[in-house]
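Predict the assembly for these three chains.
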Amino acid sequence: MDNALQILTEDYNAIIATFLMMIGLYIVMSRAHLIKKILGLNLFQNAVFLFYISAGKVGGGTAPILTGEAGAIYSNPLPHVLILTAIVVGVATMGLGLAIVLRIHEAYGTIEEDEIAQADIADDTRDEDRE
Amino acid sequence: MQTLSLLALALPFLGAAAILLLGRLPNPRDIMMIAVSIGTAACVIALLFLYEDGKTHAWTLFALLPNLDVAWHLEPLGLLFAALASALWVITGLYAIGYMRANNEKKQPRFFACFSIAIGSAIGVAFAANLLTLFIFYEILTLSTYPLVSHRETKEAKRGGRYYLAYLLGTSFLFLLPAIIWTWRRAGTLDFVEGGILPGSMGGMEAALLLALYVYGIGKAALMPLHRWLPEAMVAPTPVSALLHAVAVVKAGVFAVLKVGIYIFGAAFLSEKGASEWLIWLACFSILAASLIALTKTNLKARLAYSTVSQLAYVILAMALATPAAMVAGALHMASHALAKVSLFMCAGAIHTASHKDEIPDMAGLGRAMPLTFSAFTLGALSIIGLPPFIGMWSKWRLGEAALSSGQSWGAWAALATLLLSSLLNLLYLLTIPARAFLSGAEKRVAMREAPFLCLLPPCLTALACFAMVFLIEPLGDFLAPLAREPR
Amino acid sequence: MSETLALHAPALVILLPLLTAPLCFLFSRAANGVWATALLVSLLSFLCAAFLLEKTFDGRVLSYHFGGFPPPLGIEYRIDMMSALMLLIVAGASLLGLLFARRSVARELPAARQSAFYVCYLLCASGLLGVAATNDAFNMFVFLEISSLAAYALIALGGDRDRRALSAAYNYLIMGTIGATFFVIGVFFLYAATGTLNMTDLADRLHALPVGSRSLYAAEAFIIVGLALKIALFPLHVWLPNAYAFAPSAATVFLSAAAAKVAIYALVRFLFSVFGLDFAIGGETLNAVILPTAMIGMIIGSFSAIFARHAKRIFAYSSIAQLGYMMLGIGLESREGLEASFVYLFNHALAKSAIFMALGCIAYQQASMKLSDLHGIARDMPWTMAAFTIAALSLIGAPLTGGFIGKWLLMDAALAQGFWLIALVIAAVSLMAVLYVWRVIEAAYLKAPTGRRRGAPRAEAPRREAPFSMLLPLWIAALLSVYFGVDTRLPVGAAEIIADSLEAAGQ
């Protein structure tokens, strides 16, 4: 009990981040609308980023930008750098994903996953008739 | 010696390339094939004479993996097989040319090129110095004979080809390759050595299991119940059936079985551990069952195919008896069966070419129109049955002697009984064919000519050889004597 | 001269394609010009990779510090034998694919998108090269994502020809991004535990930590799952068949030869060099997870390939099975197993790229990849099908081809540990490979062309042979797959060095 309380007060960032991650994953898995899936994916990724930035915070520390003050405590800059890169990757992924969704809409006329799957199955059966 | 053996190995493959290049010109192409076959046979026979017992003739081609070379060596069994394959290539080459032209078969360049590659790989199997090299050429043999089996490209031909590949590749992937690697793990080497490489590294049970893997892994030996590919492959043109399935392919199979028995396990090791006891019974069963099935077949080639299955099991029986004398008997039987069977198949093809008949009941009275063909057939049949003075009798006799002296009581008696019984069955299913051809159906005046010359001469030659080889029994026995030697 | 090159080659091999790609995009829209530049850059990259391989053959490890910052502060590229081999495979596959691509892309893609293809191709190549070269865990993630994003785009570019490429690319994107995110979670756990991202430094610091830390278990698990997705290890393999089947032919050639294999490299690097076998999750657990999934993947991949009727799909499923082979060798966790995996990996890259190039040649001449539309094609395209048959023999594992060497070593590794059942499965799966390969060969050689083609009159012009520029890389790959089955010094020698060094590191 004590342990659980300790985790709740000290590691709440992990709990919240995990929550958000799972919500994101759930959206990816359960929603059939292609754009919603991408949003879920983005949520999943951002939750991970959130976790690590928050993990890098040093108690009483400020943003890791040199201010020239003597004796200033800064949060760990490395996670920030890494996450910046990761955010860029996430943005690129999202952009590419949305571009593909656009093309899918042009080609299939829909962006619901089940309808697309049905169209694909129809294509497949036409393609693989018995010899 | 090295150049000669390298030449013998390389000529068939080079010949195949030349045949493909000369594709459009039938006469130069066929002459090329005959020339290459004569050349190869000459090399091998020269090697046969130059071979000296006691000297090592072994050469490495290259190293495939660390400690695993592709290498070849000359020893009596291999030389016998190579001589058989190359000499019969000349004869069946002539026959094939005659047959293919008479029947207007298409795609002849591919046919003859694959034929050459098949013989080349048979010689490769014969000269292999270790299991790896044997395996490599064994697989090349399978792959190069597949286009020959499905040559006619009809539905049945494709079906036959599928059975062929399925059985042969299946057995070699599932059983032979694991067996080889297992041997490699246990013995540390894959070389063929007198006295075997396995003694001392495994117990009786394991040896029996490994032997089973080998015997069934060498699918070309057509041991029951994995024999089905052989009758299915009869859909091929008869020259293919003749050479490949009576001489090169199935002989490569039993040759490999003998080689494994003599040089990997060692006769002494096998009999000491009793690892091949079970195989004696299985081989006897195979001999009898295949003969019985042959009795029921009315298609001539099918009957001959099951006869081959039965005769191959003789050689496996010889290996299973696991005495040096038995091994020599097996080698002799390999040779005698080759000569006889090739005659029978070529006669079958001649009959097909001249009369378009494949079913035995239809052949009643045909003997009057085709006396030479059926006479050759009779000679071959007598050799297989094992009547004197044909060479078939000598090999069966030696086998019987070996069985008696092997000392394994129940198995030996079973072997003897099987030999006698199967000879009877051979008589029943083989002699009835020329009997019916000559003696019955007098009413049917069949206005037919003999088979074309090129289809007639070869079977007559080989049938006479079954008789003439008797004079070579002594020198052959001496040549093979090293196989019967106890390891030093 | 050689020493200066040795100093900079580790960086050059990646930077050349990486920097050329955007430059191409900015300065040239003519597809041929972009292609030529891409080809030149690939060639230079390949030469650097060959140079690096030669240097590392005698055991040297080359190191490059970006920006002059020494590790573990800066990002380091560290080329040992394993990296060098992967660099060679990727650069070689990229070169072959580009040689093949000019005509293939010109026919399969609309003119407006062709230069974009080459740009994405170069980016994908540089991403994969970067994964192989880098020694920084997060840098590996970045390059992995570069290559993956470029791959998604490459696959989607096939959407003009067949719209299923788009949904395939989308599915791959979703799954691939989840995998990459898992990977980065694992990397972050490692950073949180040790404070460093340099992989050699990580290895040292991890071994100083007490065993049994939950966050390290989690880190290893996340990394394995994330990479397993890229490797298409069962059950995370569903994205692969459609992606390979509907991508542009040149893209499939490159991806099938290089992409999943680099992910295998990354996995081996983490499992053996960073974590070490007995650390964190521990050897026996890994064994119990990787071996079954690899075997199931082999069986399922082969079964699906047997029942598929679309030529490219057959070999896409085949890839799943073959990747299973490679993971099997790793799962055996022995020196022999690792050696077998790397030899198999090398030879498979050659064989698979040849097969997909042959299929690409067929796709160049006709739109349909249905098996029933491939009947009799060997008559019209004899050179293509001959090379296909050679490569197919390597895939089956016929002797005198590279595939045989890989299969032999793998069975040997399994039997060395007494796993006779695994050896049997390996044999059975290669038999299944015979089944699906032979179906294509039979259709091509032994069946008469089907007279009916949708809407076409009966007297249709026969399909012609593929152009020389497509046949050349095809035959190079096919002949190499036979060459390395006979002269095995390069793959086996390299694999032995790799296996030895990994075994030493994993202690």
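Residues 221 and 312 of chain B are 6 Å apart (CA to CA). The two ends of chain B are 25 Å apart (CA to CA).
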